[in-house]
Amino acid sequence: LKLGADTALGVDNDPQALVATRDNAERNGVDEASLTVALPGGYPPADWHGSANLVLANILAGPLLALSDTLLALLAPDGVLVLSGLLVSQADEVIAHYAPALALTLDSEHDGWGCLVGRKN
Fold first, then answer.
1. Average pLDDT, the chain
2. 99: CB partners within 8 A, 6+ apart
3. What pLDDT score does 74 carry?
4. Which of 25, 33, 52, 117 could make a disulfide contact with 107, Cβ separation 3.0–4.6 Å?
5. pLDDT band at 13 (very low <50, low <70, confident <90, very high)
6. DSSP label at residue 13
């Protein structure tokens, strides 16, 4: 939101992370009406389906695989998906899993952790 997005959705399975998100948004002067924070399934999917120009997920490879349908459904046409929190050794598996929907590439790595990026066609 600070970089120009009109709206943002933050989802986490840890309620404390949602509290921290709200606190950080307030400290940074983010308009509360522009930010939705929710537990998984705690937001109206129809409101967000296919509307995100950018989806960021920083979680382990297992959840990135399990949540692929949800993450991809959020992406708008030509939207960008950024996946991090996975080991570089797991990148090929995640890339192959997402391949039917979009082409991910290993964009960066640090200390054995990787970041994948792809654009929805």
1. 93
2. none
3. 92
4. 117
5. confident
6. S
Q: CA–CA separation, 88 vs 109, rounded Å?
A: 7
Question: CA-CA distance, 82 to 104, in Å (whole number)?
Answer: 9
Name, in order, each residue with C-beta under 8 angstroms of 11's C-beta and a sequence gap of 6 or more: 37, 38, 39, 40, 42, 43
Instruction: Output the six-digit token pair for 91.
Output: 């990148």
How much is the pTM?
Answer: 0.88
Q: Helix/strand/coil (H, E, C) string of 32-46?
A: HHHEEEECCCCCCHH
Q: Is 10 exposed, middle or buried (0-12, 13-18, 19+ CB in 10 A)?
A: middle
